[in-house]
Amino acid sequence: MGDKEVFLGSNRPALLFSYLAYQGEWVSRDELVLLFWPEKREAQARKSLRTLLYKAKQEPYAAGLESKGNQLRWLAKTDVAQFQENIAAAHWQEAVGLYEGTFLEHYKAGESTSFEDWLEQTRDELSAAWRGAVLQISAQAKGPDLLRALDLLQAVLRYDFLAEDVIQSYMRIQALAGQTTAALKTFDSFKQALKTELELEPLTATYELAALIRDGKLAEPVSTLTVQSQTRPMPQPLSPFIGRTLELLELKTLLEDPQHRLITLLGPGGMGKTRLALQLLLDQQEHFRDSIAFVSLASLRHASDIPDAVASSLALELSGGSSVEAEVLGYIKKKHLLLLFDSFEHLPEGATFVTQVLEQAPDCKLLVTSRALLGIGNEVIYDVNGLTLPTSQDDSNIEAYDAVQLFLRTARRVRSDFSLSKADYPALFELCQSLAGMPLALELAANWVRLFNLPKLLKEIQQDLDLLETTGLEVSERHQSLRKVFDYSWHRLSPDEQRGLAALSIFRGGFRQEAARTIVMLSNRTLLQLVNKSFVKISTAGRFFVLEVIRQFAEEALEAGHNYQQEHSKYYLNQLLELKQTLNGPKAGESLGLLEQDLENLRQAWQWALHHGQFDLCLAVVEPLRDFLMAKARVQEGISFFEQALRLVKNNHEAEFIASVHLQLAYFFRRLDHYEAARTHAESGLEKIGNLAGFQYLRVKILCELAHIHTRVGDFHTGQDFAEKALDLAEKLEDAELLAGCRLRLALVKTYLGYFEEAKKLYEVVLLYQRQQHRNIALLRTLSDLGRLLIDIKQPLEARGLFLEGLELAQSQNLPYELGFMWEGLSQCSYLLGNYEKAREQAELALLHSEEVADTIGIAVQCTNLAKIQLALDHYGQAKVYLKRALQISWNKQETPEILKVLLVWSHIFIKEQEFDLAAAMLFQVSQNSGAEYVHKQDALSLLNGLNLTEQNLTEQAKNRSLESLMHQLLYSS
After folding, report:
1. 470 vs 478: CA distance, rounded Å
2. Dihedral class, residue 673 (left if φ above 0, else alpha if ψ from -120 to 50, else beta)
3. How far apart are CA 451 and CA 345, in angstroms?
4. Are 278 and 251 spatial neighbours (Cβ–Cβ below 8 Å)?
5. What are phi and psi of 557, to 5 degrees?
6. What share of the chain is helix, strand, coil (3-state, %, to 5)?
């Protein structure tokens, strides 16, 4: 923290800061949720994260904690980072000087197994790096440095007294330092300890080193001796291993479990199973006493050839006296081995030999890479998925993701001057996503950077997947193109499985089992076979999906004349219709969650219905589609859905549908605070239905939306006119729900105009109806608006009851927008009751919620509220920071009421600082501007009176200050 040293403790906030500091980059909230609360449901885990962040911000060293969208960062100069930098630069002495023992040594086991797994892995990595640095120093030690090397080696042996390579180095240094007797005593002690602890003898190399020392033949430093492999050399990868940190850790854990002796790495071709398994073997060499061996099955034609392949890999000299299978089993039955069988999928009969190995060789463990299950009862399945992918095209840390690193490494191999600019991020992001992080696909794609830039490459691959091929000699024939990878597995499917996979290609972004059964009539048995053969993946939530590259190839095999797309569209749009019944019930959160998982399928269903003129169905789902997207804070998707509808509907006779689409666009643009676009769409909808009869319901909805738009920009009287017109029409239609909506709009504008009693009566009528009808989503908005009215008229206790009711309802339905505003309302109640610390806590939670859903005006509202609270606590500097952020947002959005509210709060600071002219100019703007809420106008006049600065004796300079000049001074000069 600059020049100041900070020692982090072991409480939960300190662990959060430790993790962020160790990463040294942006970390997503999703990653933190999984790290600290892996066992909790997502909603609970996110709530816990918000609470943790609130507590973390109270720590004295929290000033550098940054937030950007869904990401957090805390940049701090740490001893761990310096240690790693020195290791990378081969500055061994400096690195060893920084190592002070176990990383986060004081951490005590908590509820998070994920955090403990990460911590254990990190500790192992740091310890291994320190150990390696000590061995490097020892190997280079001469003269006076020998005693320092002995001290360092002793420190390593205190952690692991049976580390044979360290013992070898320690004996060698003792001998070179003239301590021959001590070196031989070290050998004898180690030999006895190894016998006692593990019933093992030292390696031959260690015996040989002891003999050299005993005979006085160790005259100069020699490299540490190592055991000679008894197996044939494993394939040597041509390039460094990238990523898969979590996978290696999980596989290592599986191998360490004595119950798990057969582990199958399952995945489609090209997913990197072999490379991952090879890396695991390299990492495990020290853990298997006798040997490890790589057994390639790719070239074998019959399962009966597997024993020969094992004998060859183990370099066995066969006697020929019995069968190869018997000799191999006889050799390995008492060995502590790790065997990797690579590419097993085309030899299913070979499972019999694997079973024999498991039965006859109890100390032998087997790894298998395959595109299909072996089907053995005690087989442990480990699904191999793609490399980690960037989550956003705007991620400034995009190059840190494994998929991107692999693509860039290959691209720079084929074109040394290849560089990545920020303009390339969107194409690179989409390319990695579309290839699902598949290593083979990424490498094949990267080969084309010699010919195409990234946007052009993305377009070419989207049009023709056959572009993904190579003729490189280092690649096996069946991996030379994605099509060959697909065809190799496709031809091993039964006709029913081929038909089923082709039919599943109509789904986008995954599907549920019930959807596959209903839409394409796929049997559970066939679906299971496709899962077992790696064509279909299944998530932990029980959702199925087909990788995009596989889906595109499978789509080519769809039979002509099928009606799958029509059934698909009908199925998913009907899911939206069902939402109308469940949205206000106890299962609303569950229904919204399921629909969110199927967003891509909904998009596909919507597009198909529009292209094929199914406007009646589209019209029926317009409102539930809007409600779903808005409840899940997917405003941009809402605009995308409905703008597409306007482009595709060419039939002017569909007036009701077109007008309804304009209305939804007005709604979404208003939620983005783009009021001019919102007003244009609402007016276009009104114009579309004109004076046509039969559209009165829709007309009322559009009038209500226009009322809301004008209210938000401070044109309260026009807003009131539209709301009253809407209410008059709704009363004639005798539609209770429509009436409730109109009364809400009118109540809101009357609140802003200061007609509090009229507004309160309207709210109370609506509230009664919504509670009787269990209109939970609409009820939340009414509770929020009425609560704010009660705050305006200084009735915080009554308001608090409404906000608590709303908070409980929003939490039960997992509605992020409403959660932020409920916390903000509770904060204002605490403020009025004089409990400023509690008000600050609640306001910070409100801000976290608004940031989480990227609700910009919500962020401005919360910042203004926090500034007011900081003023009450006499924290003027912090108040200015919040006000500047709120004003910047409000000014950019031209949200007049919110701008004026910020000015009102800021004027208190200038009064305190005796900047009376500037304070007066701000208060004059608030008191005279028609866009200010009534309650804010009254507060501004009250402050002016308190300063004895009524309109008559305001300085001309203060009265003539424009809003624009005030903004410039506050945003760029204060």
Report:
1. 11
2. left
3. 36
4. no
5. -95, 5
6. 65, 5, 30
User: Each residue of 652-675: pLDDT tens digit?
Assistant: 668 899 999 999 999 999 888 788
Average pLDDT over residues 514-530: 91
What are the helix (H) ranges across 505-541? 513-519, 524-532
d(CA 504, CA 502): 5
Please count the other Cβ atoms lying within 10 Å of the Cβ belonging to residue 137: 19
Rounded (10°) CA dihedral 504, 508, 510, 513: -50
Nearest to 340 by CA among 286, 386, 384, 276: 276
The burial of 495, by beta-carbon neighbours within 10 Å (0-12 exposed, 13-18 middle, 19 or more buried), is given as: exposed
Question: How many angstroms separate the CA atoms of 925 and 904, rounded?
Answer: 9
Alpha carbon distance 731, 735 (integer Å)? 7
Q: Is 248 helix (H, G, I), strand (E, B) or coil?
A: helix
Residue that the structure tokens 């990545």 belong to:
420
Which range, of 14-28, 117-131, 174-188, 912-926, averages the lowest pLDDT? 117-131
pTM (predicted TM-score): 0.60
Assigned token pair, 575 = 């899911």
The answer to whether residue 881 scores a pLDDT higher than 80 is yes
Residues 729 and 696: their CA atoms lie apart, in Å, by 7
DSSP string for residues in 538-599: E-TTS-EE--HHHHHHHHTTPPTT--HHHHHHHHHHHHHHHHHHHTTSTTHHHHHHHHHHTH
Confidence class for position 867, pLDDT limits 50, 70, 90: very high
Which residue type, as a one-letter code, is found at position 439? P
Q: DSSP class of residue 119? A: H
* Bridging pattern class, strands 71-74 and 262-266: unpaired
Q: 78 exposed, middle or buried (CB, 10 Å; 0-12, 13-18, 19+)? A: middle
Q: Cα–Cα–Cα angle for 501, 504, 505, nearest 5°?
A: 95
**How far is CA 744 from each of CA 101, 737, 751, 822, rounded to the nearest angstrom?**
64, 11, 11, 18
d(CA 549, CA 465): 8
Burial class of residue 483 (count of CB atoms within 10 Å of its CB; 0-12, 13-18, 19+): middle
In 225-305, where does DSSP find H-type helix? 245-256, 273-283
Residue 453 neighbours by CB distance under 10 Å: 13
Contact (Cβ atoms closer than 8 angstroms) between residue 170 and residue 154? yes
SS3 for 824-845 is HHHHHHHHHCCCHHHHHHHHHH
Distance CA 621, CA 578 (A): 10
Helix/strand number for the chain, H first, E second: 46, 10
* Burial bucket for residue 295 (CB in 10 Å: 0-12, 13-18, 19+): buried
Q: How far apart are CA 177 and CA 171, in angstroms?
A: 10
Angle value at C-alpha 718, between 712 and 723, nearest 5 degrees: 85
What lies within 8 Å, CB to CB, of 871 at 6+ separation is 879, 905, 908, 909
Q: Give the chain's length.
A: 974
- Phi and psi for 469 in degrees, rounded to 5? -150, 165
Asked if 731 and 739 count as a contact pair (C-beta separation under 8 A), the reply is: yes
Strand order in the sheet with 71-74: 27-28, 71-74, 65-68
* Three-state secondary structure readout of 336-387: CEEEEEECCCCCHHHHHHHHHHHHHCCCEEEEEEECCCCCCCCCEEEECCCC
For residues 339 and 177, the model is more confident at 339
**Contact criterion met (CB below 8 Å) for 670 and 705:** yes
Of 89-98, 372-381, 613-622, the poorest mean pLDDT is in: 89-98
